[in-house]
Amino acid sequence: MDRPDQTTHFGFRDVPLGEKQTLVNEVFHSVAQRYDLMNDLMSVGLHRAWKDIMITALNPPKTDAPFALLDVAGGTGDIAFRAAKASGHGFRATVCDINTDMLEVGRNRASAQHLDDRVNFVEGNAEALAFPDRTFDGYTIAFGIRNVPQIDLALKEAYRVLRPGSRFLCLEFSTVDVPGLDAFYDFYSFNVIPALGRTVVGDAEAYRYLVESIRRFPPPHALAEMMRAAGFARVSFQRMSGGIVALHSGWRL
Ligand SMILES: C[S@@+](CC[C@H](N)C(=O)[O-])C[C@H]1O[C@@H](n2cnc3c(N)ncnc32)[C@H](O)[C@@H]1O
Predict the structure, then answer these.
(1) What is the pLDDT of residues 238-247, one digit of tens each?
(2) pTM metric for this prediction
(3) Distance between CA atoms of 253 and 233, rounded to whole angstroms?
């Protein structure tokens, strides 16, 4: 969809809509090789528990029944690998991401874990997926939708490629509203995370973007409304860890 006059935000900066994706791609190009290590360091391992909760909600079959997962903005493959390990032999995952550097790391991880026959990696944009209508039994997007310039288009595409009766799950940073935790979280986000980025990746700016993009992301009830507008039913969300993240769910019925 052409929206040439619109602006959006890249972290705290307002930028033309057409420029955001290029800036986002530069961030993930810069961090790809150290992305997984940084996730462990920044979240003190918590991202593993949040992702496991997402896989439990996805509940892929443990039998040989076929199940096709699309993991969008899937980066280095974490969600797809976790889902594959929790599933039976009929499980297949497609990891779709716009960034070739992230996908390259993901492909190497898949072969190291002997999962390359069950998880494949394709380059693509969440806003315009190259898959036919009603192809997938599940759609996941973890810490990805915040980076997509036009979230409404990504949600419509998610709905389009899901089979009726299947589930959309989105794990994303959210709004901390626990007194005391919010002040600590602000300090940690704006001071510790960029410093970690500088030390581990050599790029504090990339992690400043990450922190700022979290603050500019719509609150969970607003995302839920966008999901309903895209057609999803039984929309709900579950806050975790004091609101640091939320798991959003919707069904294509
Ligand atoms: C924070 S990473 C999340 C990776 C993975 N899902 C995880 O949880 O570890 C965000 C990913 O979103 C991808 N991304 C950004 N914009 C995208 C778009 N428009 N379409 C598809 N992927 C996109 C980036 O390339 C990056 O790999």
Answers:
(1) 999 999 999 9
(2) 0.96
(3) 7
